[in-house]
């Protein structure tokens, strides 16, 4: 499939993975997921899978439409997002790392966000990449990419935050939003 351009060298991810069976080994599936809520109801979940830690070598893409989703409830965003993520990740084998659109944890004390719930659900390290600041998430690491003066806010569970921020900083693409996250967003919104 597609090969995306990387702005800088990617750190050695093997040292980042310190959990689960085969800790420290890479099976080679890195995924970005996103969910788009459809006007008539339901949601379209998308996953883009990569064969490298730079998220530059696309190996597969998939979308799933979930006809019904919970209404948004403040502080419980994960309850709305997890069912579509379960559906789109069903059958994905050998997942090493997952990136979600949002926060892994919501504050320095570790109040779980979408990423922490995804980590518990799928048993892999999860990086949360948020496009806007959340007041309580003072622990999130701001990451500047490209020529943008607006940071992305990076949190993680299952790997150190600093390593997660380095990985996001080094992901393929020259713009603020890494190519992988732009692609999964488009796929979730359009289905193509």
Arrangement of strands in the largest sheet:
3-2-1-4-5-7-6
Major sheet: 7 strands, mixed
Low-confidence stretches: 1-27
Shape descriptor: globular
Strand residues, percent: 15-25%
- C-alpha-based Rg, rounded: 15 Å
The CATH C-level name is: Alpha Beta
Estimate the mean pLDDT confidence: 87
Count of DSSP-assigned helices? 4
What fold name goes in the CATH topology slot? Answer: archaeoglobus fulgidus dsm 4304 fold
Q: Name the structural class.
A: alpha/beta
The tally of strands reads: 7
> Can you identify the CATH superfamily?
archaeoglobus fulgidus dsm 4304 superfamily
Give the number of domains. 1
Helix percentage range: 10-25%
CATH architecture: 2-Layer Sandwich
Taken in chain order, the helices and strands follow as EEEHEHEEEHH
Distance between the termini: 14 Å
